[in-house]
């Protein structure tokens, strides 16, 4: 039936890495008949080999060239798109909350209320040593210069 062949992790494995230029084993482990013939031809002079044969020999040993390994991926576009999507979604939630959940701004935030509160604090002489009352000139009814 369906028997799964387990990977033997005690044996060396092929990995394309830029910092390890020569992997422990060749990319193609089991050679076909034409590949075996090409390996025999490799033992002779390399000038007798064509460019295609040299490329085929390289591809038997390595899966990717350095140019292919160094080639950038487009994964950054997916990540940037996801980040921007979630930022936009969060902005929509904040707009919805401001519109439907929060009440009106309290009347104590109005300029008139703040002015009256400041006047009340000055009349009560709140914090006269270093605070707001220390900055007010009570003789001239204005802020000290």
Shape: rod-shaped
Structural class: mainly alpha
Overall number of strands? 2
Strand content range: under 5%
Uncertain spans: none
**Distance between the ends:** 95 Å
Helix content: 40-55%
Family: Belongs to the cytochrome c oxidase IV family.
Transmembrane segments: 78-96
Membrane topology: Single-pass membrane protein
Function: Component of the cytochrome c oxidase, the last enzyme in the mitochondrial electron transport chain which drives oxidative phosphorylation.
Report what the structure shows.
45% of the residues lie in helices and 3% in strands. With 145 residues, it is mainly α. It has 2 domains: 72 residues, Cytochrome C Oxidase, Chain D; 41 residues, no CATH class. Strands 1-2 form a two-stranded antiparallel ribbon. Strand 1 and strand 2 form a beta hairpin. The N and C termini lie far apart (95 Å).
Detail the topology: elements first, then pairings.
Elements: H1 33-42, H2 51-61, H3 66-70, H4 75-100, H5 111-123, E1 136-137, E2 142-143
Antiparallel strand pairs: 1-2
Helix pairs in contact: 1-2
Protein name: Cytochrome c oxidase subunit 4
Pathway: Energy metabolism; oxidative phosphorylation
Family: Belongs to the cytochrome c oxidase IV family.
């Amino acid at each position: 039936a369906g028997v799964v062949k387990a990977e033997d992790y005690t044996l060396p494995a092929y990995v394309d890495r830029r910092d390890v230029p020569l992997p422990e084993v060749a990319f193609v482990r089991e050679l076909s008949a034409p590949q075996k013939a090409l390996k025999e031809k490799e033992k002779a002079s390399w000038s007798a080999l064509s460019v295609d044969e040299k490329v085929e020999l390289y591809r038997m040993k390595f899966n990717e060239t350095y140019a292919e390994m160094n080639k950038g991926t487009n994964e950054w576009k997916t990540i940037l798109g996801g980040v921007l999507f979630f930022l936009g979604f969060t902005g929509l939630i904040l707009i919805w909350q401001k519109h439907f959940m929060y009440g009106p701004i309290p009347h104590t935030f109005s300029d008139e209320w703040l002015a009256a509160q400041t006047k009340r604090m000055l009349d009560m002489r709140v914090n006269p040593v270093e605070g707001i009352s220390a900055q007010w000139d009570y003789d001239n009814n204005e802020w000290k210069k």
